[in-house]
Amino acid sequence: MIEFGNFYQRIAKSPLSHWLETLPAQIGEWQRASLHGQFKQWTNAVEFLPDMKPYKLDLLHSVTAESETPLSEGQQLRIEKLLQNLMPWRKGPFSLYGVNIDTEWRSDWKWQRVLPHLSDLSGRTILDVGCGSGYHLWRMIGAGAHLAVGIDPTQLFLCQFEAVRKLLGNDQRAHLLPLGIEQLPALNAFDTVFSMGVLYHRRSPLEHLWQLKDQLVNEGELVLETLVIDGDENTVLVPGERYAQMRNVYFIPSAPALKKWLEKCGFVDVRIVDMCVTTTEEQRKTAWMTTESLADFLDPNDSSKTVEGYPAPLRAVLIAKKP
């Protein structure tokens, strides 16, 4: 079973200590609730992984762990097999003792786009909402963060995170909690909050922005990365049943409209720092994610459109401050 006691100890004497009034009960409820049918199989994979202590760890340029002497073919195969039990791997990539997890997303490319625009992460306490496998949590630690906390209710992602953590020497600087943002009280305790690839899945996008603001300290920084469309500050796409084959896409604003939304929620110094069309090199099928990916969601005759005829995925990064 995945334990959270280390995290409770870690925050007990920090500005996050008041979270302990609600968090252990929520986690306890999660442990008793209906776990995914494959959850036992996933946690077994984590359990059977060897406890590794990297001789060389690089979280600054990638998520790479190496041993002093190369692992034997048998050891490498064993690790690879156990990690394959946790497929599909969507966010990465990871290079762990010669096992290269080529994930669906080149999340490192997104990080390269976002990083130059951030306030220095050194010594910061960070929240990453909808963090997936936790890839970016490790990159945040690599950029100097004191503590990186991810939340994501998907149980497979929790197991992927714990598997990687075990292979990184049980590093306690990053933690993933199986919660959604709506389960967090107003903590007002994080220096930086990231919400990347979440907003378009929210039925009430402005409520999501308020929830993010409630997690930040005064003068804390929000990093918002999401789908946008071309247009002015009044342009918002409300897709039909599906957008790029995704069911739960509710609102896709233009970047100027999104800037307005952030200002409406009381954020200041709102900046649109990056816009980028998602390519089939950045999101694609791999040996570690074998089902359909972006190429299958675009119009085969016109890659500037989704199969439903909407504009193809364009993503923007906005940075804003809580006053």
UniProtKB/TrEMBL annotation:
BP terms from Gene Ontology: methylation; tRNA wobble uridine modification
CDD domains hit by this protein: AdoMet_MTases
Catalysed reactions, as listed in the record: carboxy-S-adenosyl-L-methionine + 5-hydroxyuridine(34) in tRNA = 5-carboxymethoxyuridine(34) in tRNA + S-adenosyl-L-homocysteine + H(+)
One term of GO molecular function: methyltransferase activity
Superkingdom as given in the UniProt entry: Bacteria
Sequence positions that bind carboxy-S-adenosyl-L-methionine: 91, 105, 110, 130, 152-154, 181-182, 196, 200, 315
Keyword Transferase: yes
InterPro entries reported for this sequence: CmoB, Mo5U34_MeTrfas-like, SAM-dependent_MTases_sf
Keyword Aminoacyl-tRNA synthetase: no
EC number: 2.5.1.-
Pfam hit, one: Methyltransf_9
Keywords of the record: Methyltransferase, Transferase, tRNA processing
Family matches, as HAMAP family: tRNA_carboxymethyltr_CmoB (MF_01590)
Task performed by this protein: Catalyzes carboxymethyl transfer from carboxy-S-adenosyl-L-methionine (Cx-SAM) to 5-hydroxyuridine (ho5U) to form 5-carboxymethoxyuridine (cmo5U) at position 34 in tRNAs.
Assembly and interaction partners: Homotetramer.
UniProt similarity note: Belongs to the class I-like SAM-binding methyltransferase superfamily. CmoB family.
Name under which the protein is recorded: tRNA U34 carboxymethyltransferase
Organism whose genome encodes this protein: Trabulsiella odontotermitis
